[in-house]
Amino acid sequence: MCGIFGYVGSQSNAANLVLEGLKLLxxxxxxxxxxxxxxxxxxxxxxxxxxIGDASVSLAxxxxxxxxxxxxxxxxxxxxxxxxxxxxxxxxxxxxxxIIENFSEIKKELIKKGHTFISETDTExxxxxxxxxxxxxxxxxxxRDAFNRLHGLNAIVVMYAxxxxxxxxxxxxxxxxxVGENELFVASDAVGIVKHTRNVIFLEDNQMAVLxxxxxxxxxxxxxxxxxxxxxxxWEFEQVSKGKYKHFLLKEINEQPVxxxxxxxxxxxxxxxLAKVIGDAFGTFMLGCGTASYAALAGTYIFSHIAxxxxxxxxxxxxxxxxxxxxxxxxxxxxxQSGETIDVVEPVERxxxxxxxxxxxxxxxxxxxxxxxxxxxLLGAGPEKAVVGTKSFTAMVAxxxxxxxxxxxxxxxxxxxxxxxxxxxxxxxxxISISKIKKVAQTLKNRExxxxxxxxxxxxxxxxxxxxxxxxxxxxxxxxxxxxxxxxVIALIEKGTxxxxxxxxxxxxxxxxSNAQEIKARGGYIIxxxxxxxxxxxxxxxTADTKEATMLSQIVISQLLxxxxxxARGIKDPDKPRNxxxxxxxx
Length: 587
Ligand code: F6R
Description:
Blueprint: E1 3-9, H1 14-25, E2 32-39, E3 42-49, E4 64-70, E5 85-86, E6 92-98, H2 103-112, H3 124-133, H4 139-149, E7 154-160, E8 166-170, E9 176-179, E10 183-187, E11 199-202, E12 207-211, E13 215-219, E14 224-226, E15 231-232, H5 248-254, H6 256-266, H7 268-280, E16 284-288, H8 291-307, E17 312-315, E18 331-336, H9 342-353, E19 357-362, H10 368-372, E20 375-378, H11 391-407, H12 411-428, H13 431-444, E21 449-454, H14 457-473, E22 476-481, E23 498-502, H15 509-521, E24 525-530, E25 539-542, H16 550-568
Parallel strand pairs: 16-17, 16-18, 18-19, 19-20, 21-22, 21-23, 23-24, 24-25
Antiparallel strand pairs: 1-4, 1-10, 2-3, 2-4, 5-6, 6-7, 7-8, 8-12, 9-10, 9-11, 11-15, 12-13, 13-14
Bound molecules: fructose -6-phosphate (F6R).
């Protein structure tokens, strides 16, 4: 969470470069923002509450600057709590991502020494600690010593007015360094940097970088210099801009046919590797949070159905309480768009300590999970900037599907299904289907609750569809296993209650239609999504029948429904739902 951007180089408009970088990173946190630049021997700061939107800055010309978009943890959303945070003399500026677990102990100590705090944040202790350390050592060492005192998973970037360098350090949250011509960048995601350079270094945990005339990488806690490893990012800047679309969310939904084709045509080797490690393992756990957890849940059904193989699933944050089963023959498959989700990163670290093998399925090259894993499966969905996950979900499920077909030596069949689904998704994105979805959105826009039911693989679809509707339109939506209705949920149905039925042409069809009948008999308004129409449906949103991959078409319809519900309800920025942030790097 939180967007970090820093610049040091030959251009004198650092404030604007930082502002542009923050605009690209705003999906990481958007309750407040701030920028600091070096102005002679002092620091000039500009901080605001609210989204960065089309803001401009009028700070002094400078060749060094840092900035931050915040997702509040300690302290409310106020200008005082927005980053950067300064020391007493106002010569040190700090931006931070993470939680400093021992901040109150450090704060008490600093207050005793005479430091004055003006915010409620944990971050501010860092600027005062550095101020204290500067009495004894130089800038980089002062940052290093301060950072070594912090407990928890943190990333900081620091500027010091008398210095021509900025210093970055991390133990948890991501930091990427961009290496340009006579200039260096640091950001919490390569998305912020790719406009300037595609040569990047992924700072690893317990590393510090000094960005100045040259780049110096140092291993923490002691300061041994290490050689930088430069990676080349393979996406273009256009991929991180909205292009012709009004919202990133719509753009990313529209990118799904390409994402599916890419996996069908180019991920054969990855699928083979993953199938082999699953085959060799003695017990496999797939982990994910939110949307990624539903991809993992779908994976258990997919592997059972296609590969006749049991693969366990757990929500990342719950895996702590299941990991007693793990041995050095276990396989853990973290699934994550960002590769940074702390509730997945932590259990994976513990699984590694128990000797388990890690095969990560991630979208972001160089991310923490990518680095933690022995086997690295890249989704290749391109940057996902809307906070709500869409193309990353379809990529995760497609990857698992291809792998399951590979497992039974029928990779060609899996590829074919994905290619047919890519075609179907492209037609769902066409005018006829969109106008039907918009009509359903108009019917549902004032409802308080929407229920979604599915069985088997469609249970995972129902859960993901409900999450999309909740977070995008703020309507309460709940996904249920169709068989659970009679065990309680049916009590919620009254006249007109909307119920979406995920109805693929598989072994669940008859039973889910019976469940739909039971809801209709109690006054429910039934919307069917799938390849076959049925009398019980008041509205039918059709898909092709692509066996297990039908769920991908059904999910795209649900994403579109969520998006048009949001617009119909007057939600201005569906890219940034309230209270959320992309990439959840704090617990
Ligand atoms: C919902 C959504 C989140 C993420 C979750 C995990 O639309 O995007 O639920 O799926 O925070 O994020 P990653 O995949 O980055 O681990």
